[in-house]
Amino acid sequence: MNEMGLRVVTGIALILVALGAAVIGGYAFAILAAAAATAVFYEWTRLAKGWGLHWQVLGFVYALLSALALLWIRDRAEDGLALLLWVFLVTWATDIGAYFAGRAIGGPKLAPTISPNKTWAGLYGGVAAASLFGGAWVLANGMHLVLILLAPLFAVAAQGGDLFESWMKRRASVKDSGNLLPGHGGIFDRLDGLLPVAILTAIAVLAGAA
User: Fold this and answer.
1) Which long-range contacts (CB under 8 A, 24 or more apart) does 68-76 make?
2) Transmembrane residues, as ranges (predicted)?
3) Across-strand partners of 15?
4) How far apart are CA 155 and CA 134, in angstroms?
5) What is residue 106's predicted lDDT score, i.e. its pLDDT?
6) How many domains is the chain partitioned into structurally?
7) 102-148 pLDDT, tens digit each
8) For the residues 163-187, what does the mean pLDDT come to?
């Protein structure tokens, strides 16, 4: 199987696992969130080795807050499952839209010194995809309409999380955060966009904006 095929198969498997645990909820989703946060923190510590204790503390807090945000959204927020799936959908749509728009259109680089493959077209494509699919999900499930406005903003945050992890990898002089996922690298590589979206969604709910 070529690299693209391996990426697709692994990606589909990850989506199915995430969706299955989300629908089941309870311990199943808690275990998945805890395992993902632990893996992210472990890979973070490897990337930030020698950068100082404050980087290790930051990684621990970032991974912990992300996991707690996902768990709280699923179990505590009104219409928790629908909102959690919105978080997934916005993040995944951003990644997919950015990938295909970037490849199809190309053009000026978004942050060439951090991630040479990312383009402004990819950013716009990711925002457009997240707005379209996130908005459709909100309307289909009768959710708070402010989420339609938040979708493009959180798409930018997702790509910001991606760029931040790319910066960490460049500083650490590594290609991937790990090698656990065939064709994808590490867990942090796959969740870099989800982490900020989860935290921001939880904040929006707590603030009464969603």
Assistant:
1) 68/202, 69/198, 69/199, 69/201, 69/202, 70/29, 70/33, 70/198, 71/29, 71/30, 71/33, 72/202, 73/198, 73/201, 73/202, 73/205, 74/22, 74/25, 74/29, 75/25
2) 12-41, 53-73, 80-101, 121-140, 147-167, 187-209
3) none
4) 10
5) 83
6) 1
7) 989 988 999 999 988 899 999 999 999 999 999 999 999 999 999 99
8) 88
Please answer whether residues 126 and 90 qualify as being in contact, where contact means their C-beta atoms are separated by less than 8 angstroms: no
Radius of gyration of the chain from Cα atoms?
17
97 neighbors 130 (Cβ within 8 angstroms): yes
20: domain range? 3-206
Chain position carrying tokens 């992890």:
165
Q: Take residue 193 and report the two structure tokens written for it.
A: 């966009």
Distance in Å from the first CA to the final CA of the chain: 43
Report the C-alpha gap between 189 and 186 in whole angstroms: 5
Calpha distance 127→133 (Å, rounded): 10
pLDDT in tens, 1-22: 566 677 778 778 889 999 999 9
Q: Which of 149, 122, 121 is nearest to 135 (CA)?
A: 149
User: Is pLDDT above 90 for 201?
Assistant: yes
Amino acid at 57: V
pLDDT of residue 209: 75
